[in-house]
């Protein structure tokens, strides 16, 4: 009888030990960078705002762009009209969806309180923020490449049918690549603002303000050297030189302007990580 009890106890201890080993292995897997990235990717697309942004960028906007290409006045259009039309459409409408996506993903967990379970699963706060940033960057870049690629392809097909020959000669490729990278950085800009302020509305408002309102305020300073120097260093203005037909020399050209925007995003990302490490959640 005693031997049977000892055997049963030994089996229970072994089961508990094996379960503990399994939990440790799962914990290590969940805390690895790949595991955290996978979790954040699923989390991003579980948000309704993310799905809505993706659908609107790829479906209704494609239809609108097609209608514009079919019925807009294209007299006097250049060989870069397909790319120029894509830039106008994307920066006017699609970019707003990207900014909303970044802001909503950054602040969503704070507003719902789900950030606490996330920290329970990933105690390393720096790793968690880096994974979120990487996921936003990849998601926005994929959406941008798809949206821009579809728009340009439609232009290359439709415009020659209307008598406007098109070409992807320089600087078309630079404009397309620059537009996609610019949209990725603006999505990250919105994400960082939302993460710092823990407010999606604040992130969207501040990012749109920096993008559209701040340049108008700087213009009120006049055309002096100081005003022009400030204008050239604004994140939105500098970054937009990456897809400008003739980039401004004041920003260091196309890639110099994009580097200014990227530097702003890097600085805000570092601040966001450091703030989150000290934050009492």
Pick out its properties.
281 residues, mainly alpha, 12 helices, 0% strand, disordered N terminus
What would your notes on this structure say?
The chain is mainly alpha-helical and 281 residues long. 81% of the residues lie in helices and 0% in strands. The chain contains twelve helices and no strands. It has helices spanning 2-31, 33-46, 48-58, 60-71, 81-112, 115-121, 125-161, 172-197, 200-219, 225-233, 235-239, 253-278. The longest helix is centred in the middle third of the chain and has 37 residues, at 125-161. 34% of the residues are buried. Residues 1-30 have low confidence and may be disordered.
- Based on Cα principal axes, name the global outline: globular
Q: How far from one another are the termini?
A: 53 Å
Structural class category? mainly alpha
Chain-averaged pLDDT: 87
For the largest beta-sheet, the strand count, sense and barrel status come to:
none
What does the radius of gyration come to? 24 Å
Give the structure's gist in a few sentences:
Helices cover 81% and strands 0% of the residues.
Question: What's the topology here?
Answer:
Layout: H1 2-31, H2 33-46, H3 48-58, H4 60-71, H5 81-112, H6 115-121, H7 125-161, H8 172-197, H9 200-219, H10 225-233, H11 235-239, H12 253-278
Helix pairs in contact: 2-7, 3-5, 4-7, 5-7, 5-8, 5-9, 7-8, 7-12, 8-9, 8-12
